[in-house]
Amino acid sequence: MSPTENHLPGSLHKIWLHVVLSTHNDEPLITPKLEPFLQKHLQHLLKESGCTPILINGIQDHIHLLFLMNPEKSVSDIIRLVKKESSQTINLAKFAETEFAWQNGYSAYSVSESQVDKVKEYISIQKEYHKKVTFREESEKFYLAHKLEINNEKELG
């Protein structure tokens, strides 16, 4: 192959994302009754967005999503659709005892291929993990680990 030949046959991508969505005002809106439906519905919405969901799990006030991203869409477009459609469906079908809403923002972290199994394990043990660590403490650990600057107290979760 000459130095001028293209080594790549086309566009290649594999973008893992770990996203955390919290409920409005961190209220415990994700009940044991709602959780299985919410997980399946979020999987469906991610697939509709051209993403490949790998694992979704959380507790009453937030949920973690690990998925392969559709590179033709922005992170914000994917999350906007997932949050909007999931809360509308939950409220229209009256799956929740009170009105369901997500917090305005979200956290999204890229995950290297070598760390995917570690992130899957972390997401899978959320219920046990949060018996010892609050959501706020978890958020602060993520912000420090990813060197994110916090502009105000609301961003701490």
Number of helices: 5
Distance between the termini: 53 Å
CATH class identity of the domain at 16-124: Alpha Beta
- Which architecture of the domain at 16-124 does the CATH hierarchy give at level 2? 2-Layer Sandwich
Task: Quickly give the structural class.
Answer: alpha+beta
Strand content: 15-25%
CATH topology of the domain at 16-124: Alpha-Beta Plaits
Radius of gyration, in angstroms, nearest whole number: 17 Å
Biggest sheet architecture: 4 strands, antiparallel
Note poorly predicted spans.
Answer: none
Main sheet: strand order: 2-3-1-4
Task: Choose one word for the global shape.
Answer: globular
Q: What is the CATH superfamily classification of the domain at 16-124?
A: Transposase IS200-like
Total beta strands? 4
Percent in helix: 25-40%
What sequence of helices (H) and strands (E) makes up the elements?
EHEEHEHHH
Mean pLDDT value: 88
How would you portray this structure in words?
The protein is α+β, with helices and mostly antiparallel strands and 157 residues long. It has a domain at 16-124: Transposase IS200-like (Alpha-Beta Plaits), CATH 3.30.70.1290. 36% of the residues lie in helices and 17% in strands. The protein has five helices and four strands, in the order βαββαβααα. It has helices at residues 35-48, 75-92, 116-124, 126-129, 135-145; strands spanning 16-22, 52-59, 62-68, 107-111. The protein has a four-stranded antiparallel beta sheet with strand order 2-3-1-4, with helices on both faces. Strand 2 and strand 3 (62-68) form a beta hairpin. Helix 1 (35-48) packs across helix 2 (75-92). The longest helix has 18 residues, at 75-92. It is globular, with a radius of gyration of 17 Å. The N and C termini lie far apart (53 Å). 20% of the residues are buried. The model has no long low-confidence stretch (mean pLDDT 88).
